[in-house]
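Every protein is a chain of amino acids, and every chain bends into a shape of its own. The protein below has been through that process, and both of its lines are reproduced in full.
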Amino acid sequence: MTSPTYDLILKNGTVWTVGGPIETSVGVRGGKIVAIGEDGDAGEVIDCTGLTVMPGVIDSQVHFREPGLETKEDLESGSRSAVLGGVTAVFEMPNTKPNTDSAEAINDKLARAKDRMWCDHAFYVGATTENAEKLAELEMLPGTAGVKIFMGSSTGNLLVAEDEHLARVLRAGKRRVAIHAEDEQRMIARMGERVEGDASSHPVWRDDESALLATRRILKIARETGRKIHILHITTPAELALIAQNKDIATCEVTPQHLTLAGEDAYPRLGTYAQMNPPIRSGAHRDGLWHYLRQGVPDVLGSDHAPHTIEEKAKTYPASPSGMPGVQTLLPLMLNHVAEGRLTLQHLIELTSAGPQRVFGLRTKGRIALGYDADFTIVDLKKRWKVEESWLASRCGWSPFTDMALTGKPIGAVIRGNRVMWDGALANQAIGAPIRFDSVAL
């Protein structure tokens, strides 16, 4: 009998299959997983001895800044950061210049991404008061991750703040809507809480109630309109307690930076480099997020990769912009939390692959199983290393986690059977392609 022929075999690794971790081989043909635990000949063999093979990590919130803000980042540099950090797919956000709020803008991003983005990708369309009635059509465009609402002002000028307009948006369409939940009116009223030159006043201005009030409002509107929502970058335990009571209509995200940084240390040490929306809050807030994470309330991890230049971040608060890079450090930070016993690798996989697959209806991604895309993130769970500036690929050139000592490192990224990154080296060409969703026709 002739041995099976594969395009690629990953062998000798600890592979996280649907049934759990086993030391086995995985065979790939035509970009799909076609065999688990079977030997055979292959055009390429990757020896994963001593390494762990996870389903490809999906970062469902990044800002790659193209078009219009390429001094901070672009689709090529942002996606290069992604794969160097072991991320195989991203959802990119709409607050670019111009905003991604039309079919033309979505198609422009898809055209820009072709042959330039290193990872697979989808683009959010931004909701506005002007395009609300068009969103049902726009969210169904191929390569579209869905609709994104900014309830509170952040980077850019996408804003839908009033309940009547929020309801208009939620009534238009059927896919899950992503929400930046901060209450615009409360933040306007509290602008006097900002202290010039003191970034630690950022979470005083954009306080717990700003987040909780917006989350409470959007849950009510979602309930009234019958629309499912996904609340991004949760920062307060009170929000997670509320979302836990509304899981039939709401999923949510937490970020590695909110699980890692505490304001008492971050603002004195990092100043405006710790400034983001919603803010880095106290150690008590961080511990509260971990409590609800262990209770299973957050569905996914997103980096909220939002780079700004060093020159911009060096401005005196509050003239400094909010946001920090994070796509390249998402997995390393969380692997370190695994190494230190804060969560299991199984839970991390749920948050970075199976969770996004379930929440967003990804067609053939999110698990190592026959017929799925051959997307793998290969990691060394025991590798001790330090985040060095020379490793960072983001055009912004900095990270709040530079010089941080970590245990656990991404070693490789394979996307649809293509080895895109291995041990810090990139493939010869970018092969990222649009992500397919169950709800969107091909």
About this structure: Residues 62-360 form a domain with the TIM Barrel fold (CATH 3.20.20.140). The first strand starts at residue 5 and ends at 17. The longest helix spans residues 208-225. The chain has 14 helices and 17 strands.
